[in-house]
Amino acid sequence: MTTSPTLVRARIAEGLRRLHLSSLEERLDALLSDAARREMTFLDFLDTLLTEELSSKQRKRVTMGISIAHFPAIKTLEEFDFKFQPSIDQKLVRELATGRFIANAENVVLFGPPGVGKTHLAIALGRAAVEAGHSVLFESATALLAALARAEADGKLDEKLRFYVKPKLLVLDELGYLPFERRSAHLFFQLVARRYERASTLITTNQVVTQWGAVFGDEVLAAAILDRLLHHSHTLVIQGESFRLKQKRKAGLVNTVPPRAG
Ligand SMILES: Nc1ncnc2c1ncn2[C@@H]1O[C@H](COP(=O)(O)OP(=O)(O)O)[C@@H](O)[C@H]1O
Ligand SMILES: [Mg+2]
What we know:
By secondary structure, this protein is an alpha/beta fold. It folds into 2 domains: 5-68, no CATH class; 70-250, 3-Layer(aba) Sandwich (Rossmann fold), CATH 3.40.50. The protein has helices at residues 5-18, 22-37, 42-69, 90-96, 100-103, 118-131, 141-153, 157-165, 182-195, 212-216, 219-231, 243-250, and strands at 107-111, 136-140, 169-175, 200-205, 233-237. A 5-stranded parallel β-sheet has the order 2-3-4-1-5. Adenosine-5'-diphosphate (ADP) is lined by residues 75, 79-81, 84-85, 112, 114-120, 243-244.
């Protein structure tokens, strides 16, 4: 005597639940009738099931990774107009988007004046890193410094440093817009030293390297920080016009091309 299809169906649903194959559990009936309609071979049916569950798990992982990363906006490489910013090495950006630099614990520094797309690229590369399976955290340099200083005052510096050392890619946005307090510069050095050759850091900054002494309020410390950051690193220097100004000019709010800085 054969087992009733209803019983088998219930047993399969229970098995899928216990194995945490939730997408298959939800879609079981649709997948079964699709397989019957298309007269699938056993091989093709099994292949369909696995592909379906793997892509569902990947989608969930990416959604979770993006929420953990705390990106301030949704920006992608597809939305980035490389024609507007010809100084950008597009090939390097595409290479960075594969996430290989993270496997090698290399750093990335994006230099450029305001409005040229540094934050946009930083978010887009962070997203690509999540898709490639890496843990990512996005933080503004100012917020990071404030968090470290607060943690130190509360006697919890080590805990906070561990939090910021953990992600495989730490994106630090807008370093140099505000100069650091002396103490903050030391805390930042500790973070950079701990991440050095262990995990990747991507920094966006409006300051050329020669100005970092002024940013950190100390030439020796700035040199020690730069030494570690730049040792295994990729640098992108963006020269060009602000995308924000271009949009304003289009709208007739600004008339002339602003003089280029530097
Ligand atoms: N080349 C570009 N293509 C598309 N959007 C851009 C480009 N450059 C900048 N933007 C947009 O212009 C705005 C300012 O860019 P942002 O990345 O914040 O500049 P930055 O961080 O260099 O000051 C953002 O909304 C960004 O998405
Ligand atoms: Mg920015």
